[in-house]
Amino acid sequence: MVKRVSLRRVVAVAAALGVLVPIALLVRTLLLGRLFGSTLELLLYPGSIFLFDESRHSSLYGFTTFGLSLMATVALYAFAATILFGILRGIVGAWRFVRRR
Q: What is the rounded CA–CA span in Å between residue 7 and residue 15?
């Protein structure tokens, strides 16, 4: 029997991943000394486009930009999780409907 999954739990997990994945990517980039910006990294951390401004700014601006990029990433992860939850819920509902007939 499959345990029922709530949308609230799915969005909470997606929000946690939206914080952990970008931080892990940035730490990995710093530890390995590689350049950040491969296609997979940009897909996993879409808010990173705000971080790479060439002009000089204060450290407060950098922290603010990092916080805003994390919030944008969390929102995108939660939105994507909501869409996937709705799609999978529809597929499961259709499957159950077909099985009953």
A: 12
pLDDT < 50: residue spans in the chain: 1
* Cα separation, 11 vs 78, whole angstroms: 5
Per the CB < 8 A criterion, the answer to whether 96 and 28 are in contact is: no
CA dihedral 20→25→30→34, nearest 10 degrees, is 180
CB pairs under 8 A, 24+ apart, for 4-9? 5/85, 7/82, 7/85
Q: Between the CA atoms of 92, 93, 95 and 97, what dihedral angle is there, to the nearest 10 degrees?
A: 160
Between the CA atoms of 52, 54, 35 and 72, what dihedral angle is there, to the nearest 10 degrees?
Answer: 0
Note the pTM of the prediction, 2 decimals.
0.80
Question: How far apart are alpha carbons 81 and 12 in whole angstroms?
Answer: 9
What does the chain come to in residues? Answer: 101
